[in-house]
């Protein structure tokens, strides 16, 4: 069985493999980047390493977070060995669902979200969307 780090965005529950998560941080001060793609929230200094912070709400086509609303940074590893911070609404639990609870995303999942989700997992009271972090960290397009 695999474990998934979960987080919420606009009442949607997402999961990423625990193995792809470097760390989870409370909201961090970001340095805005002029002329950057709208999905880029800014840059953060992570113990001397400059990390791109991606606004996942924008990337998934969701409504912007209310001004002053809390957020969390989920720092995930990228395929090229770097890291990217995903700005999410709230961190959840680490879940270990059974393999038979996964299936392909249904048509009821909005297209902008379905394009970045590999599978869905039926839980007792939620549907967990498994985020394709490789596609999600590619601003402005899918790989």
Automatic annotation (TrEMBL):
Species the sequence originates in: Nocardioides potassii
Pfam family, one: CheW
Positions of the CheW-like domain: 1-142
Superkingdom per UniProt: Bacteria
Protein name per its UniProtKB record: Chemotaxis protein CheW
